[in-house]
Amino acid sequence: MAELEAIPLQRRVDIKFLIPKEKLLFLFEEFSSKENAFILEVKGSRITHYTNTYFDTPDFKFYHDHHSQKLNRVKVRARSYSTSEKSYLEQKKRSNKDKVEKVRIPFLPNESYPFEELRSKSKVLHTSPFLEEKINIKYSRITLANKDFSEKATFDLNLTQSASNQSIAYPEMLVAEVKQPKLSFQSDFLKALKVLKYYPVSFSKYCSGVSMLYEDVRKNNFLPLHRYLHKNFNKIAV
């Protein structure tokens, strides 16, 4: 964990893939055969369970900024790790150069969300003074790092999105994400994913969930993603 957290990825480039969960074993065999990756293990477990609560303005400003393909956009979430028993309030900002910057404030499970502290460290949240809970997202993650700890790859399983008294899940889908300080296609993670002939996609757990679960939001730009998910993965109500 210490080596992994030392990777300078608070400012980073993210590359995402949506692939069938059954391909995970092939990927791990590729990494194992080359002995080029470490796997994160916390308290004897190699799978970490995440619970995220996403916040937005009453009129879904953060969501609509993404839908409108605004280059500088923000998401705010509270994230809890069940395995390590840690919780953070986070601001995730994507710049017009497609770089991701994160601000994180730790808090205890019985504490209120530290919004004021987050705002004091944020350059954008002062324009959105009121935020409310919009959606809850759960998944299980396996995390790998390359041998020199210059990048990592995450593999998210059993994605569940809940809002407005309804929930949907994608039991057959694997969300793979390669995270680098700067874009490099020499990555062993990207080479392994290329072998499977799956290519990068634009995918937001928050925005896909809102567009699926809320009727009164704009979603035209996300309809191709809806069709792709419907064609390739089984979505179920839970």
Q: Which residues sit in consecutive blocks of at least 5 with pLDDT less than 50?
A: none
Q: How would you state the average pLDDT, rounded?
A: 87
Task: From the alpha carbons, calculate the radius of gyration and give it in angstroms.
Answer: 18 Å
What structural class results from the helix and strand content? alpha+beta
Shape: globular
Estimated share of beta-strand residues: 35-45%
Order of helices and strands: HEHEEHEEEHEEEEHHHE
Q: Main β-sheet: number of strands, strand sense, barrel status?
A: 8 strands, antiparallel, barrel
Instruction: Give the strand order, joined by hyphens, for the main sheet.
Output: 1-6-5-4-3-7-8-10
Helix content range: 10-25%
Based on the structure given, which CATH architecture is correct?
Answer: Alpha-Beta Barrel
First-to-last CA distance: 33 Å
Give the beta-strand count: 11
Q: CATH superfamily, called what?
A: VTC, catalytic tunnel domain
CATH secondary-structure class: Alpha Beta
Give the total of domains: 1
- How many helices? The count is 7
CATH topology: mRNA Triphosphatase Cet1, Chain A
Description:
- With 238 residues, this protein is α+β, with helices and mostly antiparallel strands.
- The chain has one domain (2-237): mRNA Triphosphatase Cet1, Chain A.
- Helix content is 24%, strand content 37%.
- It is built from seven helices and eleven strands.
- The protein has helices at 2-5, 24-34, 61-67, 115-121, 188-195, 205-213, 223-232; strands at 11-20, 37-39, 48-56, 73-81, 86-94, 100-106, 132-146, 152-163, 166-170, 173-180, 236-237.
- The chain has an eight-stranded antiparallel beta barrel with strand order 1-6-5-4-3-7-8-10, surrounded by four helices.
- The longest helix has 11 residues, at 24-34.
- The radius of gyration is 18 Å and the shape is globular.
- The two termini are 33 Å apart.
- The mean pLDDT is 87.
